[in-house]
């Protein structure tokens, strides 16, 4: 993901925190970036899982609670990062579908109407 995309996503985060309305093109761009951010987050989860799996071959590990074998905790982390990745992949799919569907929405200019109708 390009640095410019991350900066633009940060702008959208600030707009959301400020409660600023986004125009149609901003909403479209935000939807695209949301899908991309989720995709990258899923890739990070997958990488974390791979790294955690390899920890025993790279370090002498111990469990801070006194259990001599940290294997159960490592297995839990691997499991939870897999669940996280799965959920992110599902969210990515839905965000992508939403973005594609929203791309079919346009604004019709009507001189007899002072306000644009709200999109539900």
- Approximate shape: elongated
Helix content: 55-70%
> How many helical stretches?
3
Q: In percent terms, what proportion of residues is strand?
A: under 5%
Structural class: mainly alpha
Major beta sheet summary: none
Query: How far apart are the first and last residues' alpha carbons, in Å?
Result: 31 Å
Radius of gyration: 21 Å
- Rounded average pLDDT: 91
Strand count: 0
Low-confidence stretches: none
Architecture overview:
The chain has 120 residues and is mainly α. It has helices at 3-18, 24-58, 71-102. The chain contains 3 helices and no strands. The longest helix is centred in the middle third of the chain and has 35 residues, at 24-58. The radius of gyration is 21 Å and the shape is elongated. The two termini are 31 Å apart.
Core attributes:
120 residues, 69% helix, elongated
């Amino acid at each position: 993901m390009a640095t410019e995309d991350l900066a633009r996503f940060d702008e959208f985060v600030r707009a959301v925190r400020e409660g600023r309305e986004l125009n149609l093109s901003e909403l479209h761009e935000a939807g695209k970036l949301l899908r991309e951010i989720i995709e990258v987050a899923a890739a990070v989860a997958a990488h974390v899982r791979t790294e955690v799996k390899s920890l025993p071959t790279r370090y002498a590990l111990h469990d801070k609670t006194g259990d001599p074998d940290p294997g159960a905790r490592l297995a839990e982390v691997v499991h939870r990062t897999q669940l996280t990745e799965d959920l992110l992949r599902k969210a990515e799919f839905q965000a992508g579908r939403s973005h594609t569907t929203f791309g079919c929405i346009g604004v019709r200019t009507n001189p007899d109407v002072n306000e644009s109708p709200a999109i539900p």
